[in-house]
Amino acid sequence: MIGAQASQEQQDKILGCIATGREEGAQILTGGEARQEVGQGFY
């Protein structure tokens, strides 16, 4: 889970950082993906 973002570009950047962390062995403790159930917006 990530908080609300101002734009798709910002959300993509954050999700990319999370993906890099996973690839490098980081343990994701909660969420780590965009939330689809909240409707429009970048959550």
Secondary structure topology:
Blueprint: H1 8-23
Compact overview of the structure:
The protein has 43 residues and is mainly alpha-helical. 37% of the residues lie in helices and 0% in strands.
Descriptive notes:
It is a single chain. This protein is mostly helical and 43 residues long. The chain is built from 1 helix and no strands. The termini are close together.
Summary keywords:
37% helix; mainly alpha; 0% strand; single chain; 43 residues
Shape, principal axes of CA atoms: globular
What can be said about the biggest beta sheet?
none
Work out the helicity level: 25-40%
In percent, how much strand structure appears in the residues? under 5%
- Uncertain stretches of 5 or more adjacent residues: none
Q: First CA to last CA: what distance?
A: 8 Å
Count of structural domains: 1
How much is the average pLDDT?
86
Number of helices, counting only DSSP H or I runs of 4 residues or more: 1
Find the count of extended strands (DSSP E, 2+ residues): 0
Q: What Rg, in angstroms, do the CA atoms define?
A: 11 Å
**SSE order, as H and E?**
H
Structural category: mainly alpha
